[in-house]
């Protein structure tokens, strides 16, 4: 079971490789990938140096071109595939079927992975990509329970990669329109949720405020950690409820007040952590555990990679007796969003 780690920059890539990642994933410095933030990603020369650094140390490199080009952008996305093919990468992560077809026709020897942005949640959908494009690995969306993952594993004829750690959102990958509703730009076509050019921070008497294209997302008390503003984790007025935005930290940040009790309107900031189910994923035949976070710092990448490396090695060595060490959980919670973790959709005891 491989450990696949994020590389939003060369320092992050080195942090991942040097701390035990089997593979890293990265993107070009534009909207062809789903982490199109200022200061992140690689130009062609940097990507070439990144591939060399990783390969010299036995790690593989996957390159994500996992956004959906609009008709006017088609040639730009094809050029990105052309450039990727010159780098000696180990796999190309794609979501758009048209771009997959272009790649298969133009570079038949280039290994393809289906991005989580493809939202393939059933064995029928996965088989479609395997039959038509020869996809060698699929990254499952984070909406499946552990039982559903295990059932998919029994019926697909390709490698399966699942997310193991990182921030969560509403997880309608490839289909989320929340960001485009407010800014006109979405992760699906523009490669970024909550584009930085639309983010504004304000200091006020009631605390620090974050806005996205003028829409108030959250207000933080003076001693409260402030997260990057995304709509799904914002604090909004909810019809029939009391708006907690601007009220400071009545309970947890990003919450709607319902009946005098404070709740998040959509979801709480938290991070996925699969340490508790690593043996089940391993026995199911999962090929790789993926870490989310190309927008995170090299220190984050180093900490998460080092911790998961130890945990995965221990699990593979003896899955029957594997128990997550308290120190591993502590180390991951220290860098987790909201300083807490969840199994997310993997845990659905009612199913």
Describe the structure.
- By secondary structure, the chain is an alpha/beta fold.
- 30% of the residues lie in helices and 20% in strands.
- It is built from ten helices and 16 strands.
- It has helices at 10-18, 44-56, 74-85, 97-106, 123-133, 146-155, 178-183, 278-284, 298-317, 326-334, and strands spanning 2-6, 23-26, 60-65, 91-94, 112-114, 137-139, 159-167, 199-204, 207-212, 215-220, 242-243, 255-258, 261-264, 271-273, 288-291, 341-342.
- The protein has an eight-stranded parallel beta barrel, surrounded by six helices. It has a three-stranded antiparallel β-sheet with strand order 8-9-10, with no helix packed on it. The chain has a three-stranded antiparallel β-sheet with strand order 11-12-13, with no helix packed on it.
- Strand 4, helix 4 (97-106) and strand 5 form a beta-alpha-beta unit.
- Helix 1 (10-18) packs parallel to helix 2 (44-56) and helix 1 packs parallel to helix 9 (298-317).
- 45% of the residues are buried.
